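G.,

No rush on this.
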Amino acid sequence: MNERDSDAVSAMLRARGYRIVADENDCDVLLLNTCSVRDAAEQKAIGKAENLSARKKKNPDFILGILGCMAQNRGASLLDQLPDVDLIVGTQKFHQVPGYLDNLRAAREAGTPIGETIVDIGEEAGSQNTIKDHLAPEPDANGVIERQITAFVSIQQGCNMDCSFCIVPKTRGDERSRPMDAIVAECRALAARGVREVTLLGQIVTSYGRRDYPHTEGISPFVQLLEKVSALDGIERIRFTSPHPRGFKDDLVAAYGRLPKLCGYVHLPMQSGSNRILRAMNRPYTRERYKEIVDALRAVRSDMYFSTDVIVGFPGETDEDFQQTRELFEAGNYDMAYVFKYSIRTGTPAAELGDQIPDTVKEARNSALLEILKANSLRRSAALVGTVEEVLVEGPDKTGARFTGRTRGNRVCIFDASPRLIGTLVPLKIARASVSTLYGELVLSGVPDPA
């Protein structure tokens, strides 16, 4: 979500005449788009901003701004630690950034610097509709334009779930969905630019449109949107994140069997495998219901890939609670997981709970799940050796010597290829595998030349 927001702000700035530079040391304006999910993320952003403040002392015309969730969460109080920041803009005001920067620069060029930091963290009706611009690739030094193959598309912002550990409702506001036709038009335009895979984004993406569109013959608005995007020429793959387990009703499960473009990869946040802890987290499902969802999805696609989120060390989590989490985690056979040690987020209900878990216990539980994950991922990767997987060629890898792409199950692949294959779906025979990366050779027989 933050990456998508940053891309949209960058596109707005370029449209206003700003130039995006590759090296932060060359910029006149530096904007930090921040996260607040964990305190460590805020502290990292504050540390970065403090380091940049030294640059302002050498160059008073240098503009430093803080955007996003930390800006929304802390607002003007950030100035107690960061008095030199020029701009603090919250999550519903990204589209105001170009105008604020123009004002700051105009004032300084006129020799009348604005004395106070611009702070805007207010709510704004319709702000979800402003995250729609995409930063188009520009030519490199040789005049070559790197083609964009994948793109994020924001469809919904905000969250009404009120999980007791989470600050997102405070930083992102209430659920707000974009019009379905606008989303489809954005995806169509991306396809015309050469994008072949879109990832639909939302805080609770499966809640999309539930107050704006009716269910039609048992089909939720979110699944209706998946159908419309799937019907677009040029879009070959669809992914989405982040969903909520309660959104996986029969219609969404069935969609994996009838929409070929919907990739067989599901991010399904578990958070805990203990019903007692799930209640304390205010998560409206049980371990039994969670397992039913996993089983139903695997019944539709036996080769379904799963990732999840888990929090260990939630206040009051006993050894028995963790053992239940461990058992459900093992049963999930995840390919990827984000395992977090619980950290207090001031302003959330869980922050007021007693029976905080010692850090040593959190660390041990965290390590135990990561060991299970490593074994699961390695086993799933090893099982792919010798098989042929469909891969979307995205472009050169980080070394520039080979190419990279992903399977439908979201596994990163490295292989030799021709630039002409960028943006095409190719068969790749897997020769070897690591925990998270597959290496293979193209099976080029029958692969058409791209138009």
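When you get to it, here's the other one too:
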Amino acid sequence: MIDRILARDSDAVQEVVTPLSKPAERMHNVAERLRTGRLAEEYFLAHSQAIASVAPTLILDHRALARGYDFGIRERDGIAIEVKGLKQKRGGIAFTDREWPEAKVRRGDFWLVVVGNIDTNPIARLIPDPATSLNAECRYQTTIAASWRAMVAVA
């Protein structure tokens, strides 16, 4: 394949190089998804009583712990809450390979909160045991990423 690319074979360039030259569009999508997710989490934190009958003071923030869910509940150790956001009232949501297995193991103790219409008039839906009630499709993908490293000293 490399020899074909170096020989300027247009089919090889189209197959390999062209897809790699389109990161800007993907980055915008990632940034927008992060923004939508953050807004949904903030909405949940402010409205947890109405959404899940849990006082905001009882919500434990686990977002930085990489546990496969965003929040827990003080005094109810087994409950895991994952929050997803949608720009519209309906649409697709993505689970990481840490979140979906966690939902499958915890079953009724895993609550999914989907906050839709996030920019204008948010509305939330609580889905207990999403592994049973949602039909999620697993898709495997290979990703090529550049990684840059530099040596530094602070003293």
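The first strand starts at residue 59 and ends at 61. The mean pLDDT is 90.

Enjoy the weekend,
O.
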